[in-house]
Write a structure and sequence with these properties.
Blueprint lengths: L2 E2 L11 E2 L11 E5 L6 H8 L11 E2 L2 E2 L7 E4 L11 H7 L8 H14 L15 H14 L4 E5 L7 H18 L2 E5 L3 H7 L2 E6 L2 E7 L5 H8 L1
Parallel strand pairs: 3-8, 3-9, 6-7, 7-8
Antiparallel strand pairs: 1-2, 4-5, 9-10
The protein binds adenosine-5'-triphosphate.
Adenosine-5'-triphosphate binds next to helix 1.
């Protein structure tokens, strides 16, 4: 598939991604790395259904993604939460599109908050939380809908190193426990190698490298992207 933002004059290729062909296995943890402008966020917007490929298609299972899709959720760099709502209110908001009511709704929220270590914060207002706690709420909101595909776009980049490392390890624990398929975008090569089972490196919108993380080093990734 491919997506290009408009056309450039003078025969130069317009910015965007592709053509590329990627298959993510169910339950896989895939990290996408690449320098600024390489197309990471564009790829994630395509996977999230915010953009439609101009060429080819994106399938989730055997059904195409044609727009915002309840089978997947996206967590972005800055937690997009409602500050005036409680932690529970924010997580519940993600469930509204599923029209989930009653005890199952309550259980989903409680489980999601427990998974991110915020079981005791249910009634707190979001504006009282730290940046790391807010990002935990975003992840809980994404997990509560029990997505088939969890997309994360540099979710920890606004956080200090310690919080970032702690949250990365929590995410690994959640992935392990929930068997959710994860596509995680980062420009930090160390983070990609720590988290991913597989790493895809993008350069100018193309796949420059696609390999199991265990076969890679930061040096090898850097050399590919230079
Ligand atoms: N809305 C847009 N209109 C036109 N060009 C765009 C648009 N959004 C992104 N681009 C261009 O597409 C290319 C890929 O951008 P993208 O944001 O996907 O890169 P990225 O790898 O996520 O970068 P960063 O790490 O800086 O977030 C860049 O050349 C960018 O300038």
């Amino acid at each position: 598939m491919a997506y290009r933002y408009g056309q450039r004059r003078g025969g130069q290729q317009a910015a965007g991604v592709g053509p590329l062909n990627l298959k993510v296995q169910p339950g896989e943890f895939l990290c996408v790395v690449g320098p600024s402008g390489s197309g990471k966020s564009t790829l994630l917007s395509l996977l999230a259904g915010f953009l439609s490929p101009q060429q080819g298609q994106i399938l989730l299972g055997d059904r195409a993604i044609r727009g915002p899709d309840p089978r997947l959720t996206l967590v972005q760099q800055e937690a997009a939460l409602f500050p005036w709502l409680t932690v529970t209110g924010n997580v519940a908001f993600g469930l509204d599109s599923q029209r989930l009511r009653g005890p199952e709704r309550k259980t989903r929220i409680e489980n999601a908050l427990r998974l991110v270590g915020l079981g005791d914060y249910a009634t707190r207002r979001v504006h009282e939380l730290s940046g790391g706690q807010r990002q935990r709420v975003s992840i809980a909101r994404a997990l509560a809908v029990q997505p088939g595909l969890l997309l994360l776009d540099e979710p920890f980049s606004a956080l200090d190193v310690q919080t970032r490392t702690a949250l990365a390890d929590e995410l690994l624990g959640i992935w392990w426990a929930q068997k959710v398929t994860v596509v995680f975008v980062t420009h930090q090569l160390e983070e990609a190698l720590h988290l991913g089972q597989r790493v895809v490196a993008l350069k100018d919108g193309q796949v420059a490298l696609d390999a199991p993380a265990r076969d890679l080093t930061v040096g090898a990734l850097r050399a590919t992207l230079d």
